[in-house]
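Quick check before the chapter quiz. The format below is the same one you will see on the exam, so make sure you can read both the input and the output lines.
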Amino acid sequence: MWTFGKKIAAGFAVLFLLFVGIGSVAYRSIDMLTQTSYRVAHTQTVLRDVDELISGLRQAETGQRGFIITGEDPYLDPYRRAIIAVPKSFQELRELTADNPHQQRRLAAAEPLVQERLDHLKEGIDVRREAGLEPAAKLIQRGEGKRLMDELNRLTNEIKTEENAILKQRAEEVEAASSGARRTIVGGTLLSLLFVTAVGFGLTRSLANKVTAAVQHVQRSATDLQTAANEQATAARESSTSMTEITATVTELLASARQIAGSAQRVTTVAEESATAAKSGDGTVLQANESITGIRQQVDLVVTHMLELGKKSQQIGSVLDIVSELAEQTNILAINATIEAVGAGDAGRRFSAVADEIRKLADRVASSTKETRTLIDDVRGAVNTTVMATETAWKAVDTGSRQFAEVATTFKQIAALVVTTTESAREISLATQQQTTAVEQVNLAIANTAQAARETEASSQQTFQTASRLAGLSKELLRLVQHQPAG
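Here is the expected output.
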């Protein structure tokens, strides 16, 4: 179904297409006129250059004859200007007719004639300079110049005839384009006016019918709206009264919820303080347990070092046995060396002195080894005693560590129970606060609802008044559309 908006859009679309068509035709016609004007000007330029070519040759001939008759050089000025202008005009003609093969052939035929005519004029001037008037006059009387000019006139007349024919054809094209553009513009304009008139009349009738139907519908809707506004105002008054009573009840509930929230907050504070104390005691117990564990580790380390020291003492004793044995062997060797040195006489005296020193050194080493052994034995005894005492202390520390670990475990359980109690108290406090917030939000929502009910009641009155005015306006609009006199 065609709506009013679609009809207007369709009308504008058709008008747009008509204007586009008229504009296109006008633009094409103007463009054709412009192009044809350019071609007409081009043709006129060709005709002008042809005339200038012939005029130049005639001026050259005039200058030549004046010089031949008088023998005075100033008469050659037209000739000098012509020999410059003629080649220039001829070159322009070749360029202007480059797209016309017929004219190019004619210009090709005229070019040697032009050159021959200029050469003939120059020959007459040279004869007059060298031989005088009579030979030059005889040269002119032979009629060669007239023959060349007649031939050139024939070719240039053919060129001008074709260009005039082209000019006439282009003038007819201009007239045809102008007539077509005029017919299109006038016809399109009349068609557009007729279409606009028809569309305007149709839209006016359609609009009047639609407005009449819409006004009648508005009248019915205004009546229904008045009835609904009265019912809405009554319901809004009842809703406002109920909201006021609910607001008083929720206010009392809000006061009770705030008292409960305050008590829960205090319980949460006490529980948090208990949890803090429990966490602090738990930290102290953990630190003490860590200290005992450190002592145990240190005792273990001392025992290990003592046992290691006992092992090292035993190793030193073994080394001392080897050193003592080496000292005895060295002493025996020194004695044997002394005996051998005495048997050798004077030759072994120095060796005997060295052997004696070695024996003394061996005696000192044996003596030092005995003293070191005694010290090592004392150290070994002290190490054994220390190891026994350390083992006793390690057992005592181990027993204390296990007992303290049991205490730390018990304290952790207590701390965990306190933390659980604190979390429960915090959850109770949070739930109470949320309940208080919810009650406040409910109170605010009820207050907003009451305000909305009052506003609804006021807007219902305004709606009733607006509906009444709308009914009056619809009657007036219907009267205007249907052209009825006011009753």
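If your answer matched, good. The mean pLDDT is 80.
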